[in-house]
Amino acid sequence: MSGETRDAILRPTALERLARVADLEPALLVTDFGADDPAQRAALRDAEALFTGWGCPPLDASALSAMPRLRTVVHAAGSVKHHITQDVWDRGITVSTAATANALPVAEYTVAAILFANKNVLESARVYRESRSRVDLLTAFPSIGNYRRTVGIVGASRIGRRVAELLRPFDLRLLAHDPYLDEEGARALGVQRTDLDTLARQSDVVTIHAPELPQTRHLFDAGRLALMRDGATLVNTARGSLVDTDALVKEVATGRLNAVLDHTEPEVLPAGSPLYDLPNVLLTPHIAGSQGGELHRLADAAVDELERYAHGMPFAHAVDPATLHQQA
């Protein structure tokens, strides 16, 4: 992992737990598998497990050739697509990820965004700020609130499922679209399975949790955005490429739609982008995922998995290469 990642997630208590379950050299940090470092080469030659995080370089055939004893990779972050290659699976190496732990803060952010969107928080705050006097709420916002509003969840991913679970206590109608979600799974989640266009038409808030794949690029393009109800809100905590940024700008600039965006395409918008200044857009700098103290949850989850491995138990959060293409 990168030095920045190590300093952020591996607090002393996590290192102490690691030391109890494995032989490790706490001072050794690998950021380049090909580095000309005798101590690193010796450590990799004897390594049975890799404890990885953001910034891990690809584990390709060249890197793996220096690790003949490697049996498992425990990732203290979400997606493993950036460093786990086919060579890992060909070697029979097992992989675990803390993606489930990382899904929790994203789902929490999303639920907050949904509840605030239905209460017209951005618009009411703007009106109050500009008027600096009592606001006639029944006249200005006659239809606000969360009672029996419709929320559309795009993607029954770890995050999408957690969002559905967290929304259960509220009086909301939940729609969901995912090509891999069947009727039984939808009932278990408490959602109504539907096609994507119907979801776009009927939802007061649409929240995106689908993976970034060639077929999901611009999933919400000009045509699908045009299907959304006047006054509806689009929440995107997934990848920015799932939304056509230019098309979204045109819609929100008219005031017809609102947006809560934690990820955009490009990831950092140009300084002149209207999305920074539009009053009906909440733009955040990719904060929905684990940040600050939440990073410690990722380390704890990864150490939990390493403990399971050390005791000969299967991973609780193993990565299945057969379904990896479906995931973020």
UniProtKB/TrEMBL annotation:
Domain D-isomer specific 2-hydroxyacid dehydrogenase NAD-binding span(s) in chain numbering = 112-288
Key word Nucleotide-binding present in the record? no
**InterPro entries the UniProt entry points to:** D-2-hydroxyacid_DH, D-isomer_2_OHA_DH_cat_dom, D-isomer_DH_NAD-bd, NAD(P)-bd_dom_sf
| D-isomer specific 2-hydroxyacid dehydrogenase catalytic domain span | 42-319
Recite the UniProt keywords alphabetically.
NAD, Oxidoreductase
**Keyword Protein transport applies:** no
* Similarity section: Belongs to the D-isomer specific 2-hydroxyacid dehydrogenase family.
**Protein name as annotated:** Hydroxyacid dehydrogenase
Organism in which the protein naturally occurs: Streptomyces rhizosphaericola
